[in-house]
Design goal:
Mean pLDDT: 87
Largest sheet: none
Strand content: under 5%
Structural class: mainly alpha
Helix content: over 70%
């Protein structure tokens, strides 16, 4: 592809996807703002304890959506249109099955999950309500994520952005209405979050009704090999999303012993801002994926490298700007979420912002590189990067550093982990490129 055409398409997809992902991430940030003002520190604690389950649902939808849409784009690039439709049909089938399991968990096991996440008597009921409603809305969240991926890869990133932003803005409006005028408390906050993907899906449905829609449900015999392939390609996206949830669970447990509920509330501010920042890098990664998968299907290696360079340069520029904002404006940013003007919460969260977010260029690199490997069907290195940052390094690092340096160690464990994983990612990329030259 010509460089000018490639660059124009890159920015078209990336800008639209960043806007959409920012909107999607604001589901939880809006809850954080309105809950902090309406329910105080206990409400923030309950929200932060429940967020990992939201991340698990969201990540599951992305796993099937990204895995299926990646394979779909590769088949389209190879002009295997019947196989592309089979991929879409299999993706919808497995998404539905897992969504039903989440709903059943919400009906029968929300209390047990609340205990497992560490909620004490002060926040147990609020946490349980949030968990139960989020799980009942799991089909909407998962269907929305799946359709976002397929509609974007079907050449309609603008509609995807509109759907994401419409869902997000409706969540903000409903948050205010349910929590304040209607005085529905935590139930109102989670209902607003649950209705958002339903509204987003109604926008995305326009693509299904339009003539440009190129994916269709077809009759097929379930292929466990194809399902395995979809999941394998989607696992890195799942782990990237789940990483935030897993880190939150581990950090909540550690911080409860170090600083109690106020510490968890302070970490909730940092963690929810982190979800928004990570969504920007996810937007870059997901914006490049359709183009990468298509040029990979064509066999155009030079374009693959060029797209990766564009993505990394964009990420570095954005990272510098974000960190400067947090460094210079930590006090007013935390104050927005500290309605009770709790001095301890303010101090803990301000320190956390400045230390925790030194990780963002490394985190952005890891997310983009993992997505790059997935887009060109290199599932193993993508999984290594994602598993390392989400499970294998971060939790031992948090335990070790918190033992040595208390809360400072908690904040530093994230940047140190992302830096180490970035070094692993670079070595995997070099190995991958050497392998191509030897072919």
């Amino acid at each position: 592809m010509k460089t000018e055409t490639l660059l124009r398409e890159f920015f078209q997809y990336v800008i639209l996807n960043i806007c959409g992902m920012l909107g999607l991430s604001c589901y939880i940030l809006a809850d954080t703002f309105f809950i902090s003002n309406g329910l105080g520190a206990n409400g923030l604690t309950a929200l932060n304890l429940a967020i990992p389950i939201y991340s698990f649902i969201h990540g599951s939808g992305l796993m099937f959506g990204m895995g299926g849409a990646t394979k779909y784009s590769i088949y389209r690039g190879q002009k295997e249109y019947k196989n592309a439709d089979k991929v879409f049909s299999h993706t919808i089938c497995i998404t539905f099955i897992l969504a039903v399991i989440f709903v059943l968990a919400g009906i029968f096991f929300s209390g047990e999950l609340t205990k497992l996440l560490g909620a004490d008597k002060d926040v147990f009921q609020m946490t349980k309500i949030y968990l139960q409603v989020i799980l009942l809305f799991a089909p909407a969240f998962m269907a929305n994520n799946t359709m976002i991926c397929f509609v974007r890869n079907d050449g309609n990133p603008k509609l995807v952005m509109i759907g994401m932003l419409t869902g997000s803005f409706s969540n903000i409006i409903l948050d205010y209405i349910f929590i304040f005028p209607l005085n529905m408390g935590i139930c109102g906050a989670v209902l607003a979050t649950g209705f958002a993907p339903v509204i987003s899906l109604s926008v995305l449905s326009r693509h299904l009704l339009a003539k440009q829609n190129q994916f269709h449900l077809v009759r097929m015999n379930l292929s466990f090999r194809l399902i395995g392939n979809i999941i394998s390609l989607g696992i890195p996206s799942f782990i990237t999303e789940m990483a935030s949830g897993i880190v939150i669970i581990a950090f909540n447990t550690i911080i409860l012993h170090l600083q109690g509920n106020i510490g968890v509330a302070a970490y909730g501010v940092v963690a929810n801002l982190s979800i928004v920042v990570i969504s920007i890098y996810t937007g870059i990664a997901q914006g490049t994926q359709p183009i990468l998968s298509r040029v990979y299907g064509y066999g155009d290696r030079e374009s693959q490298k060029q797209i990766l360079k564009y993505a990394l340069k964009t990420m570095l520029i954005i990272s510098c700007g974000i960190y400067l904002i947090f460094l210079l404006s930590a006090n007013p940013i935390v104050s927005i979420f500290n309605s009770e003007q709790n001095i301890q919460l303010q101090q803990i969260a301000e320190t956390g912002l400045k230390l925790y977010f030194t990780a963002i260029p490394f985190a952005g690199f890891n997310i983009i590189l993992s997505s790059y490997f997935t887009s060109i069907e290199k599932a193993l290195p993508a999984q290594i990067v994602s598993l390392s940052r989400g499970l294998l390094v971060i939790i031992p690092m948090a335990l070790f550093l918190s033992f040595l340096f208390k809360m400072t160690g908690v904040w530093l464990s994230f940047p140190i982990t992302e830096c180490l994983v970035a070094l692993v990612g670079i070595s995997l990329y070099i190995k991958s490129e050497r392998g191509k030259k030897n072919v």
